[in-house]
Amino acid sequence: MSTSIRVMILGTGRMGSGIAGLVLEKPGLELAGAIGRRKDRAGMDLGRAIGLDRDLGLALEGDLDAAIDRVQPDVAIQATCSRLVEARGEILALLGRGIPVISIAEEMAHPASAAPGIAAEIDDLARRRGVAVVGTGINPGFVLDLLIIAMSGVCSEIESINARRVNDLSPYGRTVLSAQGVGLTPEAFEASVAEGRVVGHIGFVQSIHMIAEAVGWQIERIEETRRPIIAQRHCETPVMSVSPGQVAGCLHSARAFRGGKPVIELVHPQQIRPDLHGVETGDEIIINGTPPVHLTGRPEIPGGQGTTALAVNMIPRVLSAPPGLHTMADLPVPAAMLGGFCSG
After folding, report:
1. How far apart are CA 212 and CA 301, in angstroms?
2. How many H helices and E strands in the chain?
3. What pLDDT is recorded for position 287?
4. Would you say 107 and 82 are in contact if contact means Cβ atoms under 8 Å apart?
5. Confidence of residue 1 (pLDDT cuts 50, 70, 90)
6. CA nearest neighbour of 111 among 99, 126, 98, 96
């Protein structure tokens, strides 16, 4: 007899709450528990914590080890951070208890390119405990890497790859907007980039290495640039207001070199209210090869909705995957699970 898959969510921010909400909607999945990093929210009903107007009868947990004992999840989805060094402790705690993990931390898309030692540590523990772990998300994890890899399958030769994702930052919170430099002066933007406070997109290095590994290229170096997108008109989001002359977003690009020549170029302009500046969002992939491939999509695949769906749709892939650390290129491509999930 089939039983529901018990899912634990780590993180109840915008993404974690969205993932939890989707788990609640899917037949065959059970939202069994959730962890919040904010100690002041511990004990809060999970329904209220993720923005529902009703109680779920589950308390938001603050202690991961204790929560694992109480919840006994079949799989965990981590949505607490972007950097591998921050994600490490939670992932190792879960794997150490034999819990498969899906992480949306951007650097988990290709952990070895961020911290080879931590990646090896995660892979070793997952193998020893017989479970799988993978990083996913809209970008990195899909648009600027997995989709490119899939499309390269029709090519016999490839000279270079160019891809571009233009998206609207307006739905995001203050933390994301600050990381893009939104609201700064152009001078403050440049200074913040130099100081590492404006990071732009996290994931170019991961996407490039995932693509290169898939097609068999050795990358010599990666060059990244971050430039301010200046507001020409007054524009607002629910959390921020930007005047003309201030920074509305970040134009972040990365070029990977092989044999002294650029072979992969990824460009990711992100700004608030691009529509007010005559900018159309969308995704574009160009593979200069035999045959050439050119794919465009307008508007952008919504980042939040896409990442939420990917995290949930990867559940059956991770539960059936060989033990160890995987990238999205290692596992079968996820599909929308419209018929429900089952664990047996």
Report:
1. 24
2. 11, 14
3. 98
4. yes
5. very low
6. 126
